[in-house]
């Protein structure tokens, strides 16, 4: 499957005229939904560069930035089990990525989400990781990190197509399909790392109004602490897929307010 994906991408890139589009932004969609970032995807050294955070989050990966090493840590989370399935590290100082061995993924995630984490804590996992060489090293542009489009295929194993008429790259990945699943995965990816470990859980809201909201493409979730004998509700959220906005219930105002952190 990966060889086929690489062939599709190679053919797409062959018909992409770099001189014609070098000064134009490249549109990007993931599973039919536009991925909007500033700056947008662009052409560099005859290669299409895409924003790693926006693409990864659209494919249900959590993205963490390590300030000390300037590495990008990406983790594929299973929304149902609340456990990591895949982890990789993008180096910003070299054209390569490190794919963590499956047996090390959980321990790697536990280490990288600690407040005291440094890259030396995961040296053993990095030494065992599979090295994937990229065409170009990541490019940091206006505080955003971009990677070659081919890396999306090599690292995330996705299908990619190119629309020459509209300068649009389309990525089709194996992610949540229903709007309810999309909303839940989206909110889960936005939550701080400490809320992705037991006893915390993100569940569909227990409110009787939940189904009525869903008819308007507004989905309700609760962040809880789940103990054997009781449940503590930490926060309540509404996700408006019409406007791509996350709201949190503000007890002091007795109403729903736009969450500034989760809407970044």
Estimate the helix proportion, in percent.
10-25%
Coarse structural class: alpha+beta
Reported for the largest beta sheet, the result is: 5 strands, antiparallel
Low-confidence stretches: 1-23
How many helix segments?
8
Compose a concise summary of this entry.
The protein is an alpha+beta fold. 24% of the residues lie in helices and 37% in strands.
Structure description:
With 264 residues, this protein is α+β, with helices and mostly antiparallel strands. The protein is 24% helix and 37% strand. The protein has eight helices and 18 strands. The protein has helices at 2-14, 18-21, 52-58, 105-112, 123-128, 149-156, 179-190, 210-214; strands at 27-30, 33-34, 42-44, 47-51, 61-66, 71-78, 83-91, 96-99, 130-133, 139-141, 144-148, 159-163, 168-172, 200-204, 218-226, 231-240, 245-250, 255-258. The chain has a five-stranded antiparallel sheet with strand order 5-6-7-8-9. The protein has a five-stranded antiparallel sheet with strand order 14-15-16-17-18. Strand 3 (42-44) and strand 4 form a beta hairpin. Helix 1 packs antiparallel against helix 6. The longest helix is centred in the N-terminal third of the chain and has 13 residues, at 2-14. The radius of gyration is 20 Å and the shape is globular. The relative contact order is 0.13.
Descriptors:
alpha+beta; 37% strand; 24% helix
Spell out the blueprint of helices and strands.
Blueprint (H helix, E strand, L loop, with lengths): L1 H13 L3 H4 L5 E4 L2 E2 L7 E3 L2 E5 H7 L2 E6 L4 E8 L4 E9 L4 E4 L5 H8 L10 H6 L1 E4 L5 E3 L2 E5 H8 L2 E5 L4 E5 L6 H12 L9 E5 L5 H5 L3 E9 L4 E10 L4 E6 L4 E4 L6
Parallel strand pairs: 1-13
Antiparallel strand pairs: 1-2, 3-4, 4-11, 5-6, 6-7, 7-8, 8-9, 10-11, 12-13, 14-15, 15-16, 16-17, 17-18
């Amino acid at each position: 499957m990966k060889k086929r994906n690489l062939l599709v991408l190679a053919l797409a890139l062959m018909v992409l005229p770099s001189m014609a589009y070098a000064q134009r932004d490249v549109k990007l969609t993931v599973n039919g939904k536009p991925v909007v970032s500033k700056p947008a995807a662009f052409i560099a050294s005859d290669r299409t560069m895409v924003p790693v955070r926006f693409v990864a989050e659209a494919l249900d990966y959590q993205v963490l930035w390590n300030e000390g090493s300037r590495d990008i840590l990406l983790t594929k989370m299973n929304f149902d089990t609340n456990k990591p399935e895949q982890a990789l590290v993008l180096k910003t100082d070299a054209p390569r990525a490190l794919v963590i061995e499956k047996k090390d993924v959980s321990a790697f995630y536990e280490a990288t989400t600690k407040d005291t984490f440094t890259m030396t804590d995961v040296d053993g996992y990095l030494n065992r990781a599979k090295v994937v060489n990229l065409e170009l090293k990541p490019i940091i542009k206006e505080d955003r990190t971009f990677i070659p489009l081919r890396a999306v295929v090599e690292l995330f194993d996705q299908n990619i197509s190119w629309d020459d008429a509209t300068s649009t790259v389309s990525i089709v990945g194996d992610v949540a399909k229903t709007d309810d699943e999309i909303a839940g995965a989206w909110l889960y990816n936005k939550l701080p790392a400490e809320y992705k470990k037991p006893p915390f859980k993100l569940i569909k809201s227990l409110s009787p109004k939940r189904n009525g909201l869903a008819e308007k493409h507004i989905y309700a979730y609760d962040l809880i602490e789940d103990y054997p004998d009781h449940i503590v509700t930490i926060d309540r959220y509404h996700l408006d897929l019409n406007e791509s906005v996350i709201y949190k219930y503000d007890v002091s105002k007795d109403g729903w307010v736009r969450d500034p952190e989760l809407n970044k």
